[in-house]
Amino acid sequence: MIYRSHNLGQLRREDIGKKVTLSGWVSTKRDLGGLTFIDLRDREGITQVVFDIDVASKEVVETAQRIKTESVIRVQGEVRERYSKNMNIPTGEIEVFAVAIDILNNCDTLPFQMNDEGLSESIRLKYRYLDLRRPEMINNLKMRHKMIMAIRNYMDSKGFMDVDTPILTKSTPEGARDFLVPCRINPGDFYALPQSPQIFKQLLMIAGVEKYFQIAKCFRDEDLRADRQPEFTQLDIEMSFVELNDVIEEIEGLAKTVFNAVTGEVSNYDFPKLEWIDAMERFGSDKPDTRFGVELKDISEISRNCGFKAFKSTVENGGLVKAIVAPGVAEKFSRKILGEYEDYAKTYFGAKGVAWIKLTEDGIKSPIAKFFSEEEINAIIEKTEAKTGDVIMIIADKAKVVYAALGALRLKLGKELNLYNKDEFKFLWVINFPMFDYDEAEGRYKAEHHPFTSIMEEDMEKFLAGDMNIRTNTYDLVLNGSEIGGGSIRIHNPEVQAKVFEKLGLTPEKAKEKFGFFIDAFKFGAPPHGGLAFGIDRWLMVMLKEESIRDVIPFPKTNKGQCLMTEAPNKVDESQLEELYVSSTYKEDKTSSK
Description:
Helix content: 25-40%
Number of strands: 22
Number of helices: 17
Low-confidence stretches: none
Mean pLDDT: 94
Distance between the termini: 59 Å
Strand order of the largest sheet: 6-9-10-22-21-20-17-11
Radius of gyration: 30 Å
Structural class: alpha+beta
Largest sheet: 8 strands, mixed
Shape: globular
Strand content: 15-25%
């Protein structure tokens, strides 16, 4: 049986008069007595099929009339010029008058209408195979395919080798929790699913591969959000004999190629570079959205001797007082709305409060104005470049809190006040991240990126002298406020690597236990090398302007890490656990639903 001579997005005016065979899903159906119209759909498009009692047999027309939407059918007929043309679709100038129909598979009653735009995400994920039939989802899959092919073709053209690395590997500390897999043939031992191929790709450089890439599945057992999944797809890249600018030049070419393949747009400019410290001070974020301004302004010195105790004591204790300007909202932002912004900053980012100053036609309005002299108020206005009609929003706290809270408020204002063009794309490199980040909860330093990141040459002397405030040869690629990729030049000197482990609280014995094979490899001639990794899913999400990463992944998990379609994760038989020498200590909370 021939199922199709053409796909359903293929026929045009020049095909008029041809006899064709088409197969697909019944998207919509309209019965008009002796005429029945079916929009037949496949992944390439829609073609209108006409069942006319004057052309087809009574049996064919009656079969068409009783068929349900989303049933799979095959039709044979002749291409004719469409009487009522639809120029919104590529096949809109023609229609097919059917003379035969075969029902290949009837469709039961659907759990939802395919054109329902108000579907809950849980329903969509439960019936993902139906959700994926919808044109917007099929388009996302096509764009994902185009993206992957553009990556592979570019990497091959630049001499990179595609090398796969193990999925079952050793648990090593890389920040997030590992997914663990018990090993039946080695009772009591566990594999870990890779959070990234980081160690293996560096070993491939030691092995002499020189230019490696892989589109790899990675796994992290961490709390989820709109742009994060427990399993994700990563473009992993590593190169030997390179410095930071070599990597940036190579990767910028890749990013432009992929961007053009997916969006059809051209980014024919050198991506700007911004030092990490400048990104934090200006935008409160290491992945700033540079499509709009509203930059953070430091008013710590102006506040140092003011009468407002909260600001003054913050500065005395080494903290910061910074401000952003919400443009043109002095009349619109009531105390209630300002209170909502304050609650947002307090609830999610740990700020103690948000002070504000309104610049109205009638003068300054602010609950804190009485604590400042006229000269100090004018200095704040001058520093923030605020104008009449604006609202100055101020946070005083430790640097981390100020950056996080004001950075988040900036993004919230940008979105809610439409301060940027949603159709615009802006790339940015953020470079030279700090090597260490102090974790107050654990009372120790952690690696900002990972412990294999090389230290900037001009900071090496400080590092060896015990200074923890040092910079690294790091680079993150940011698109519209989302980090789509990041990496570093790696440490290739075993002595420096040992010193970094020491600073992170890893004793030589502990380092040997965790990374013994890796440390040993560096004794046998490790070349200078560096690389990075892109989050394929997040990168695609940003380019397609989707709000959720789940809309660009074929079969994603919920924010609780569940697959509603397959009902994973699920309980397993006790016999399976016994084979693995594993038992569960979890006790179900009987009161949790009360």
